[in-house]
Amino acid sequence: MTRYIFVTGGVISGIGKGITTASLGRLLINRGFKVMVVKIDPYLNSDAGTMNPFQHGEVFVTKDGAETDLDLGNYERFLGIDLNRYSNFTTGSVYSEVIAKERRGDYLGETIQLIPHITDEIKSRIYQLGHDSDAEVVITEIGGTIGDLEIGPFVEAIRQMAMEIGRENTLFIHVSLIYTLPGGENKSKPTQHSIRTLQELGIQPDLLICRTSQPMDEGMRKKISLLCGIAEQYIVEGHDTDLVDEIPLNFERQGMAHLVIKKLGLGDRPPIDTEWAQMVHKLKHPKHHLQIALVGKYVTGSDTYLSVKEALKHGGIANEAAVNIKWVDSEALIDHPHLDEVFKGINGILVPGGFGYRGIEGMIVAVRYAREHTIPFLGLCLGMQCMVIEFARHVAKLKNANSSEFDNETPHPVIDLMPDQQKQSELGGTMRLGLYPCVLRENTKGYAAYQQPIILERHRHRYELNNRYRDRLESEGLCFSGLSPDESLVEIGEVVDHPWMVASQFHPEFQSKPLAPHPLFRDFIHAALCYQQQHQVADRPVTAPMGESPDQQLSE
Ligand code: GLN
Predict the structure, then answer these.
(1) C-alpha of residue 214 to centroid of ligand 1, in Å
(2) pTM for the full predicted model
(3) Most CB within 10 Å of its CB: which of 337, 471, 540, 546?
C-alpha cells in the first residue's frame, strides 16, 4: 500500500519546500524505497510554460515535454529519476478539467462545487500518480504558504486524503521559518501562528522543519513542541547552507528518514547507498577552482538558469573542480570598451537559453570573444543560435545575419522559425518540447562526449538553423555534429578551428544529475581546466562555493 507524505510551507514563500521534498526523497531512495513526487502550484496558469522566468524561475522541461515548475528539476536531480507531466499540476489545470467534464455532461446535472468536485479532482490526480508509478511513498509538495487563500482547496484535499487512507498511512511535514532578529535572537512565534492556521484547517503536522540561520536551542524546541503538539524529536533543524546537496545529509544526521519511515509503519530500513555522501565529499574538497562566465539577460535572478547552474556544478564534480559562476549581464557587453577586463580570469563562457531580442547583441559579443580568444564555449539553445549568428556574421561574412526571431528583415536569416511552427497561434505548450533523438557524427566533439551514435535530449524552442545556410556555414568551418534522424534539424554545432566550442539546440542541463553529470557539461569543464592550465592562470580559491551566489555582477 502506498504511503502519502504532504509538505506544506509556513510564514514566507521560498522557504525551501522543494529542496526539503527532494532531500527526503533522496533519503528514502537511499534506503531502497520506490518514491514518486508531485508539486502542486496554486496559480491559475495551466502550466509554467508562459511564465516569466525572472519572476518565477526557470521553466523546467520533462522528457514528455511538459513545461513545469523548477522544483521538478530539484526532484529529478536529488532522486536521480526522470519524471513526467503528472508530477506537476496547477489550480488552472484542475479547474479546466472540472469545467471540461461539466461541459461534457459527466456530472449528470449535479451542482459543481469546490467541495467535492475540485477537491476530488485534486485527490484523484495524487492517487493516480501513486497507482501509476507503483511507488511505496508519494511525496506531495503544496506550493505557496499556509494562510494563502489560493491553496485552500489543496489543503482541504490532503486533509480528506488522510481521512480516506488512514492517518497512519499519511505524514504531514511543515517547513517553516524561525526568524532571527538582527541581534541574533531566534523567534518561533511566526511558526507557531502558521501551525495554528494549519490546525484550523484540520491538519496537525507530524514533523516540523525549522528553517534557521542560527542554531536552535533546546528551549525553543521544547516550546514549539509544547505549543504546537509536535514531539521534540520530530522537530528538525534546517539551517541555511550554500550547498543544497548537503541538506539530505544534514537531515539524515538528525534521524529524519528514520522517523518518517517509523511513523509510516514502513519498518526500519537502514541506508544502503552512500553514493550521495561521496558526491558531497567530492564537492566540498575540489582539487581545482574554475571561473565560468554565464552570459544572460537575467543575471540577478539566479533561479532563472537553475538547471544550468546545477549542471555546471555537476561538470565540476566529474572533473574534481569547484565551478564559480561569474554572472555577466549580456546587455552590458554591447559596445563595452573593456572586454578583457570582463573576461579576465575566465576559463569558459556559457550562453544559456532565452527568448526575445534584449541582450542578444551582447551574447554575440561574448561568443565572438570566446571564439577569437579560444576560450571554451558552451551554447544552449538560444546560445547555439547566437553562436551560429556570430559565425555567420564574422567568419562567413554574411552581413547582418540574424535570427528571424530578432529581425524579420534580415538578409540572412541563418536561424528561422521551424516549418511546423508557422501555423501555431497560441504560446502555451506549442514549442518543440521534450525528448527527441539526435544522431551524432563520428570524430566530433559531440561524439567524443557521448561515445554513442544516437542520443535523446530535451527541447524547448521554435527556431532552428536555416538549412539554406548549412553548406555555406559548414564550408567555413562550422561542423554540424548532431542532426535529427531525418537530417532536417541541426541539433549540435561546433567550431572546428577551436579547442572546444560546442553548442546544442537542445537543453542538456535538464538531464544532468549530481550522480550522473551530463557529458557535454563534463567535457566543457574539462576543456576549461585545460584552458586554465595552458594559460597558467593560477588556481585561486573562490569565495562562493560552487557558484551558489553571484559574486561579481556586471550590471551596467
Ligand atoms: N528563442 C529561441 C527559440 O525559440 C531559443 C529558445 C530557448 O533558448 N529555449 O528557438
Answers:
(1) 42
(2) 0.93
(3) 546
